[in-house]
Amino acid sequence: MPERVRRIAVVHDGPEPGVQDLFARLVSDWATGIRVAGALAEAHGLPGRACSAGYLRSIGNNTSFPIFQDPGPGSTACHLDGGGALTAGQAIRQDIAAGCDLVVLSKFGKLEAAGHGLRDAFAAAIEARLPILTSVSPAFEEVWRRFASPFFVMVPADADRIREWCQAVRVP
């Protein structure tokens, strides 16, 4: 791949559930032509919760990894639980090692900024020089920049623009 093309595309412009839905549609479209590793975020579906952390679903084998604890309805505490994200990250690293064309990681957020969650999966994909499609929580953009610069480009939440990036990094 040409050096001027950034290997990581960070999708911005839009609420997180919309970005995750976009990623899911793209992964579905690519199912027959591109070997994709990674995980997508899914909501927990529990009413009356202050935190949206739910599940990470493996793209490779559809395994669901819970990343939340349920403190019950009406709780104002965030119930993010990093154990499931670490387990998902280990599975993603195995999928990367087995071979893939593209890695899609739901987002770089609170856990990753602290050095946990999917951070090792991001690092494995970067080390393997694989293209990565992801999003970054706005609160952790500066940590992301320190972690991933100069390897990323920001792209809008637009399927055509993401496909153009894929072509530029020569994903089949």
Walkthrough of the structure:
The chain is α/β, with parallel strands linked by helices. The protein is 37% helix and 21% strand. The protein is built from six helices and seven strands; from the N terminus they run E-H-E-E-E-H-E-H-H-E-H-E-H. It has helices spanning 16-30, 82-98, 110-113, 119-127, 141-148, 159-168; strands at residues 8-12, 36-42, 55-58, 64-66, 102-108, 132-136, 152-156. A seven-stranded mixed sheet has the order 4-3-2-5-6-1-7, sandwiched between helices. Helix 2 (82-98) packs parallel to helix 4. The radius of gyration is 15 Å and the shape is globular. The mean pLDDT is 86.
Strand content: 15-25%
Query: Could you describe the largest sheet, including whether it forms a barrel?
Result: 7 strands, mixed
Overall pLDDT metric: 86
Structural class: alpha/beta
Radius of gyration: 15 Å
- Written as H for each helix and E for each strand, in order along the chain, the element string is EHEEEHEHHEHEH
Low-confidence stretches: none
Q: Brief description of this entry?
A:
With 172 residues, the chain is an alpha/beta fold. It contains six helices and seven strands; from the N terminus they run E-H-E-E-E-H-E-H-H-E-H-E-H. The chain has a seven-stranded mixed beta sheet, sandwiched between helices.
SSE diagram, text form:
Blueprint: E1 8-12, H1 16-30, E2 36-42, E3 55-58, E4 64-66, H2 82-98, E5 102-108, H3 110-113, H4 119-127, E6 132-136, H5 141-148, E7 152-156, H6 159-168
Parallel strand pairs: 1-6, 1-7, 2-5, 5-6
Antiparallel strand pairs: 2-3, 3-4
Helix pairs in contact: 2-4
